[in-house]
Design brief:
heterodimer, A: 216 residues, mainly alpha, Cytochrome Bc1 Complex, Chain D, domain 2, two-stranded antiparallel ribbon, 7% strand, globular, B: 494 residues, Cytochrome C Oxidase, Chain A
Chain lengths: 216, 494
Amino acid sequence: MNNGPLLFLGFFLAIAFSWTGIVVTNLVQQTQAGGTQPYFDPASESVVPMPMSGSARQGQLVYQDLGCVYCHSQQVRNSLSRDPAAESPDVARGWGSRGNVARDYIFDGRLFLGTMRTGPDLRNVGQRLPIATWHLNHLYNPQSTSAGSIMPPYPFLFDVREVKGEPSPNALSLPPEFAPPPGYEVVPNKRGEALVAYLLSLRTDYELPEAPGGGQ
Amino acid sequence: MSSASSLVTSIDPRSTYVQERSELSRIDESTRLLALIFFGTAVGWLFLGTIFAVTASYKMHTPDFLGSWDWLTFGRIRTAHLNTVIYGWATNSGVAVSFWLMARLCRTVLRHAGILYVSGAAWNFGVALGTYGILAGDSQSVEWLEFPPYATPLLFVSYALIGVWGIITFRFRRSEHTYVSQWYLLAALFWFPWLYSVAQIMLVFAPTVGVIQPLTNWWFAHNVLGLWFTPIGLAAAYYFIPKVLGKPIHSYHLSILGFWSLAFFYNWAGVHHLIGGPIPVWVQSAGIVASLMMVIPVVVTGINHHFTVVGSFTAVWNSPTLRFIVFGALNYSVTSLIGSAMALRSVNQVTHFTHFTVAHAHHGMYAFFTMIMFGSIYYIMPRIVRKEWPSANLISVHFWCTAVGIMIYVIGMSIGGALQGLQLLDVDKYPAFLDIVRNTVPWLFSRTLAGVLILVGHIAFAISFVWMLLKPRSAMETAPTLFNTPPALKLKTP
């Protein structure tokens, strides 16, 4: 073990092995198998998944800069049971109708699979909670919709301003104990609107042949 | 300036002038300023990172605390904590320990130290810029790679310089044998630039499509731990345990087995962060197998360290260096075995996505790596500044606060996390997610308590460190600062 070049060859092989195996092999495999292309479903004559809208894309950047990923995953976990018929616990919890597969993420840009569930999984939050006003109230102060939550409030995604003339159409209607003083209203700013658009866009409401229960 | 010829001779190992072994202190002396730069900045980052940590921990059970500023929202301050302690504290102290050990083990004075001055300045500037970026909202939200793209190229260049310097020093080695610590250090210096550059390119600068991103992310993030911090921690343990006790390491052959099995298995283990996720099942299985195979290097290294220590427990307990390092080495074995178990599908189903993982990460990075860095600093600093540590009591406060603090942290969050995981799987009994969240809150309070204890320990450490630098050199210092000075070393007072 005193031979410098031989040592380096060993170091090189060790890391080259895992990089090739974990990263490069899967990159090649995914590209060759057409895994980065959406799927055309002949039955419904639709193409899935669909690219994200512009406002959702902006909201994704807000999601990124606020670090939502550290408390919320975005993957309905597949069953780990040996029994192929076993239901995924995430599906049982109502977090989605099926486990996620690679193709669900081809239009995501940056992926936020996450490793932590301090809060619930959000991959299908747009399907589970499709109401924009709920999300806005929840982001402004999570206690207003979910008492006892440990999610931080995000008041900086909103403007509290004096009502001049008619109240704004997009002003929040908050429970009295969370509402601003009389004569004032809470209105989401651009970042707040975009973040909610992103959350509402998170939904896996289609089938893929390779997905669990997809007939393959 | 005799530029060309002196450059040639300066990189030709045959022209090295003869150095006697007694020149060890000259070797230490040559690392002095650099070690001070890297250790000094490391202590600063550690302090800042701990403040971020305690704030984030407090915010998690009391979310309204400092809730009005986006700069201080949990998602940013938690990320600032991770990056300052990983790239500020752990990497800076790891680099300083690496080149001090490297110079000693190669029996050569530090050469081309200018490379390290430049890289040290660039590295710390990069970390500061990156931390500012995270707090200002430019975080990448890719775990362990959050620094914005305007900070990372600087970090890569400065890091690559450190790697180059390591190879130059190794070329100048005057020792016949390469010791096990040198393999670990060289490998780590070689692996990290590869990991960092590939991960940056494939995730940030030219991102791949779809799930190749998380695969690259966890190949990188787990390997930062496995192929960068772990080798440095083990190199230090392999050096200091026999050095301070004055006996050879138990088995040379076991150390070879331990090194190469770590090099080939740790690499693949990162995929266990994606078990059950949208990636091919064969990769998940490969990651699980590699994680289980990690039992080999862990047990082998554990045996080697344990049998070296056996019979010298009093010496270990009295030496600040060894008390920290043996604590770290023990926790390396425990946390690695827990980690292997966590990769099993049946265990992973419960522990993944919970605070159990957070406890495990801190068990590895703090109870193992950071404690070994503390121990190393307690050994290295007196030799480079030629002063003794000012107070054994401060070291004692440092040890007990951090050791008890991290144990409360790991045990509390492990129990809380395991309960959280079991409740998440039990939809019939816990249909409401919010109930599970509420049940974690007492455990989150235990973490804040642990964090405050650790902060107190770090304050004691920082005071010790600064006091030592500022105090004058004293003729009365004849013995190292130990917890219990043996009578033979005590200065006879008239």
